[in-house]
């Protein structure tokens, strides 16, 4: 389950439970994360799903126009 207010919250799912036991329903979002390579770990900007979602939630997009 992912919530953005007041903070980004992403609850882990127990892989051993069924969807019903995990209380997953239609419309729920499931995020998967690959395990980082050990030698590449320090170069990863967002180390987990929660930090990436926090970035996406707080980012600002700028458009520049030159005439």
UniProtKB/TrEMBL annotation:
Q: Read off the Pfam families from this record.
A: USP7_ICP0_bdg (PF12436)
What positions does the domain Ubiquitin carboxyl-terminal hydrolase 7 ICP0-binding occupy?
A: 5-62
Q: Identify the keywords attached in UniProt to this record, alphabetized.
A: Hydrolase, Ubl conjugation pathway
Q: Looking at the record's lineage, which domain of life comes first?
A: Eukaryota
Q: What GO molecular function annotations does the UniProt record carry, in alphabetical order?
A: catalytic activity, acting on a protein; hydrolase activity
Question: Which InterPro entries would you find in this protein's record?
Answer: USP7_ICP0-binding_dom
What name is this protein filed under? Ubiquitin carboxyl-terminal hydrolase 13-like
In its UniProt entry, the species of origin is given as: Trifolium medium
